[in-house]
């Protein structure tokens, strides 16, 4: 059987961990990720993100050759759990403009909220690995020189029950807390806004190197939009929705009141 770059790296990571006599739990603690993400790396299901490379090299004493393979080959492959090329775009973006009519954006979800969303989707995936992947993507917002993330959310998201009251309270508290970061803006589009008639599905626009790429969510999968005309249409939708959104401070106050209601 031919060994792919991802499989090669997965084997090397597992062997390096075992040589250091580290459990997956201990390694996860050392590099500040979840045990399930370590397992996904060692199975070759997910590629270690760039933000983890220095710590992996330090803790496992990885040879330069292995880190070059990770950097030059593996990060160019597409993980089956991730939607096409979008995670690569997300990591390189200088700005991310998100609109969501039904759910809190994935980059802002708590683990329990994300788990409930993935479970409800009934996808043919390994739940723990999919959850680890989603949570790992969130590192893009807290890395050095993170992108500006502007999230427009429909007011209905604050009322939609995902899992239980505690999960909802924790999620909305987290949502408000994330706005304390200079690179995160969250604005709510009120339920009585005329713009609600245009709420068909969620989407994200990424800006980098003078270019823009869009990503559209749907019930089964997602589509990356690279054509200028398609991205321009998404940008117009975003601008129309944002024009009807309340400002950040009013949005935070609304989110915090909604969180209290879920207690």
Automatic annotation (TrEMBL):
Organism of origin: Actinoallomurus bryophytorum
SUPFAM superfamilies linked to this entry: lambda repressor-like DNA-binding domains
Name assigned to this protein: Helix-turn-helix protein
PROSITE patterns for this protein: HTH_CROC1
Record lineage: Bacteria, Bacillati, Actinomycetota, Actinomycetes, Streptosporangiales
InterPro entries tied to this protein: Cro/C1-type_HTH, DUF5753, Lambda_DNA-bd_dom_sf
Domain HTH cro/C1-type, residue spans: 13-66
Source organism superkingdom: Bacteria
GO molecular function: DNA binding
């Amino acid at each position: 059987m031919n060994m792919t770059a991802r499989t090669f790296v997965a084997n090397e990571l597992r062997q390096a961990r075992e040589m250091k006599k580290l459990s997956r739990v201990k390694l996860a603690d050392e590099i500040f990720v979840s045990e399930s993400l370590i397992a996904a790396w060692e199975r070759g299901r997910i590629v270690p993100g760039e933000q983890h490379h220095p710590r992996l090299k330090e803790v496992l004493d990885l040879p330069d050759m292995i880190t070059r393979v990770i950097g030059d080959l593996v990060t160019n492959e597409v993980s089956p759990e991730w939607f096409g090329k979008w995670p690569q775009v997300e990591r390189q973006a200088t700005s991310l403009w998100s609109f969501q009519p039904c759910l809190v954006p994935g980059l802002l979800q708590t683990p329990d909220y994300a788990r409930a969303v993935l479970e409800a989707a009934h996808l043919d995936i390994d739940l723990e690995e999919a959850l680890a992947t989603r949570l790992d993507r969130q590192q893009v917002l807290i890395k050095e020189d993170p992108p500006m993330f502007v999230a427009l959310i429909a007011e209905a998201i604050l009322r939609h029950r995902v899992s239980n009251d505690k999960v909802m309270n924790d999620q909305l508290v987290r949502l408000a807390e994330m706005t304390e970061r200079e690179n995160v803006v969250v604005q709510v589009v009120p339920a009585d806004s005329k713009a609600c008639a245009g709420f068909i599905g969620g989407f994200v626009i990424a800006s980098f190197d003078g270019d823009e790429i869009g990503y559209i969510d749907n019930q089964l999968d997602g589509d990356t939009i690279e054509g200028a005309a398609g991205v321009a249409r998404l940008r117009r939708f975003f601008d129309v929705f944002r024009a009807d959104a309340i400002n950040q401070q009013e949005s935070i106050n609304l989110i915090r009141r909604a969180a209290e209601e879920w207690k």
